[in-house]
Every structure is written in C-alpha cells, then in structure tokens.
Amino acid sequence: MTNYNPSTISWQIPEHDHYQRSWKWYLVASLVGIALIVYAILTSNYTFIIIIVIAGALLFFTYDKEPSLETFALEEEGILMGRRFYDYDEIKNFAVIYKPQQGIKKLYFVLNNNLKPRLSVPLEEQDPVTVRRFLLDYLDEDLERRHEPISETISKKLKL
Known about the structure:
Strand order of the largest sheet: 1-2-3-4
Low-confidence stretches: 1-5
Radius of gyration: 19 Å
Strand content: 25-35%
Helix content: 25-40%
Structural class: alpha+beta
CATH architecture of the largest domain: Beta Barrel
Largest sheet: 4 strands, antiparallel
C-alpha cells in the first residue's frame, strides 16, 4: 500500500530479512556450531558456549518464521518504522542504493546514535527518485555510499 499524500510516503516492509534455507544449510550451521562449542570447551571459554547456544536458538527458532509486515513512513517530522518514530534530528544522512540487476533497492539512514548507527529499509515497489526527492527536503544525502554495507552482503550470502 502506497500513500502519495505530498506530506507522507508510506509502504509495508518485512520486520526482518527472510531467507529460504535448505537442509544442507542447517547441516553446515550445526557442524560449525558444534566445532565452535568444542573449541570453547578446549579453551575453557564457557561464556562463549552460552553465546553460541543463544545464537543457534535464535537462528533456528526465531528467524525461520515468516516475518510480519510493518508500516514504514516518510513524514514531514521524521520517519516511522513500525512503532518507532525517528525525528529527522536523530538522523545524520540518507542514501538510496538502486541496482536493479543486482536485486538491490534499499534506503539507508545513518543515525546519530552510536548504538544503532544505521537503518536499512527495502524500497519494495517505491520509486527511488520520488523517495530521494522527498528526503532531500529534510536530510543530507550521502553521495559517497554506492554499495550496500559489507555486513548485509555477508548476511545475504550466509542467509543469516
């Protein structure tokens, strides 16, 4: 659903990325997890075992669910992402990465918050030019960013 009110642009986005994983993926992930646990035991690093178990549980139980959709909106005062509102004062800049042949169509916001420095938003069916023009009235554009972050590329490749 798209709203073309001149003061708001909104659409639905998944709450997180979702990847189809084969049984081979789960086998390799299990073997890596077991190898890390063995390493942690050999080095007497029991905290690392707890971290591995929690990360494994999250991957197997949480991220395998189909993500629900939430509303994302560009408004005159800021952006709304699900239930969280970000005032434009909380945002340093934005970048639109549009590379259709690579399947990349995303909007990035760099926040002034060091704990959560970046928001990544899929543009879905939105026109990147319309979104960019809207945001230029409120934020600086990061013209240096031309590629998606390496962390997202790795996450896509590993289906995390």
